Amino acid sequence: MKKTSSNIIYGINPILEALKSRQRRILKIFISNRRKNKEIDKIIQLAKAHGIKFKSVDLKTFQQICPGDKHQGIAGIVSNKELVSVEEMIEAAFEKEPNPVLVVLDHLEDPRNLGSITRSAEVLGIRGVIIPKNRAADLTPAVSKSSAGAVEYMLISRVSNTLNTILILKKKGFWIIGAKQDSKKSCFTCDFKRPIALVLGGERKGFRPLIEKNCDEVISIPQSGHINSLNVSCAAAILFYEILKQKTNSP
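The chain above was modelled as a monomer; its predicted structure follows.
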């Protein structure tokens, strides 16, 4: 397993899910003395139960630890998020079910989109998220916050070469399905009841032509409004739900 570089997470849900999942060690929790509510009280109780140190600090000190205004008055110093290899992810996915779905993100740059996609993926039964090492969002505290703690549960792999990864997935029995706005094939006619690697592109240009060339199918989400595209994280949630619906309704 490999590790990310970030060791601070912030926000109520990311801290709470880190405590509940026990996937990585929490070294210390800092709480702003201006923020008190039931959720933070619950975090304090869990921290005490697990023997984790926590400290109430004034706002100035807290801002030095965790700058910005999206922290909800709580932050934690944690051990690094463990990443898995693609091979480990594939093995774990097939242990869960015969037709797992993985997500491959090709140069997604906005950490909030990465967090939102990870959150939807975890809620809707996706078994892993694959991201490139270069020219893409990393697993920053902002990703953890946007995922509402889903990062703690999701298998994540960072790869040097997305195309080579797709070829590996093909050899392992995955169908490579790309999602692209201008495809004429509806996602609602796609068969998701098989091992699937769903490819989603970056915010500006989508996935690269070479990636598209190696997709077995390219699908789109039917639209009827005036705006000609969906945010990638919104599109991901729709596709994940369609996948879950097909699996749930299958005999």
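The longest strand covers residues 26-32.
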